[in-house]
Amino acid sequence: MTLAVLGVGGVGGLLAGALDRAGEKVIVVARESTADLICKHGLRVSSVRLGEFTAHPRALTELTEPVQTLVVATKATTLSQALERIRQPPELVLPLLNGLDHLQLLRERFGRTVLAGSIRVEADRPQPGVVTHTSPFLRIDMASSEPALAMSARALAQKLSDAGIQAQVLDSEPQVMWGKLVRLNALACTTSAFEKLLGEIRDTPELNDALVAVIEEGCAVAGAEGAPIDPAVAVKELTDAHATLGSSMQRDIAAGRAPELDAIPGAVLRVAARHGIRCPITERLTAMIAARIGVSVPALTGPAPV
After folding, report:
1. Alpha carbon distance 246, 254 (integer Å)
2. pLDDT, tens digit (0-9, with 9 covering 90-100), for 62-109
3. Tag placement on the chain: N or C end, fewer CB within 10 Å?
4. Contact 234, 182 (CB under 8 A)
């Protein structure tokens, strides 16, 4: 099984490094400067779960050869541009992006070989060729509505598990996508709107109320999409998380990068609008973030999610 990873940020770099260390044939596809750096010096991984090591996957600027699996781990904001580097269609695509709308884009490009996928991880790329994984939690969920892909998905899950990455194949695509999005949306909205880490939010009653409200709103939307999620379970997951937990959106804003405002709360609000569900706290926090960074609030119409 040859695996290609598009996007060598925190998620893509961690997976590529772990799979390469486990003996898999791995290709990373990245921009010229990053590919050149990895070719010369390897990919340095610092993980509280997997340890400290340097991996040496092949690094290319374009994928022109057949691969069995393509893991797409770019930001939603750079997906369209990154896909120009994929010249050869893979047999199986596992996207690990935030949000929902990327599934339609990928399926328009690659057909029904695209799995629904999500990853729960706290990882970052402080500089090109370096990945830090700062929480022991690491899990990938995947699913497909195509029965023919089930065997390929299970084989991929096994390869990931053998590399130290917990992976499982679920029966429901909506459950895979919304199971993460409900929690991620609440974390991203509150940490980015209030400019605080999770512990400070939990310790401030009015901010914690907002966190819980965004979770409850997200669960209502998820249920309408066929993914029943107990708000108490999602709340407990963030209650149990470490106090210094932030969000990728918060880090992107701090670094001056374009945040995934449209991909995360924008996706939730578009589905909510389709079902006639009000999400006032999510709307308020999204507007606060948009005003803070000087962009328009996400449109409430767009691609139909999974």
Report:
1. 11
2. 999 999 999 999 999 999 999 999 999 999 999 999 999 999 999 999
3. N
4. yes
